[in-house]
Amino acid sequence: MNSKLYIVILLLFISMLALLIADSFYHNYTDEPEDSDVIIVLGGGDQGRMDKAAELYQAGYADTVIMTPIGDRFSGEELKSIGRHYGIDESDIIVEEESDSTYTNAEESIKIMEEEGFDSALVVTNDYHTKRSRLAFDRVNDSDKTFIFINAMNLSGERWYERENSGTIWLNEFVKTWGYRFGLYNWFG
């Protein structure tokens, strides 16, 4: 190959890499909330997710809240207690206790939706986690459920890039999102 072809290939590679990296910094995929059958609060992050879910619940967007765990960090009763603390009636809380990753959060939440006859959900997670959450729910959903993704700031009201650990957040989500895009859910949480 001649040097001009090498330069063209190199420029194409650099351009693609730049686009991939630029895309990885954009995590603000939030939808406008709509009336739904249920609110799903994904485990992880800080309680900013719970605060946002309670805000949506109290505004009447849904009458039921599914709370998902992050590993064994909180028991079902502790999750219900957190929900009550934020003003959600205990009778309106469903605790999903089986999942251990974003992908299994999607699987288990959809199972609950099917059992309860729910067709639509507001999925609440942190701004940095929305892209990967959307990937997981899109992969698991058999197209008969509607998911609306709502970003939650942390309890201090900061976006992911305003936080002290923004570099770590970016790197973790970059790796995990690409892992999810390649179907490697078991290795990337």
Automatic annotation (TrEMBL):
Q: Which Pfam families match?
A: DUF218 (PF02698)
Q: Which part of the chain is the DUF218 domain?
A: 37-145
CDD domains attached to this UniProt entry: YdcF-like (cd06259)
Q: Which residues form a coiled coil?
A: none
Q: Which GO terms describe its cellular component?
A: plasma membrane
The record's annotation in InterPro entries points to: Cell_Envelope_Assoc, DUF218, Rossmann-like_a/b/a_fold
Q: What is this protein called?
A: DUF218 domain-containing protein
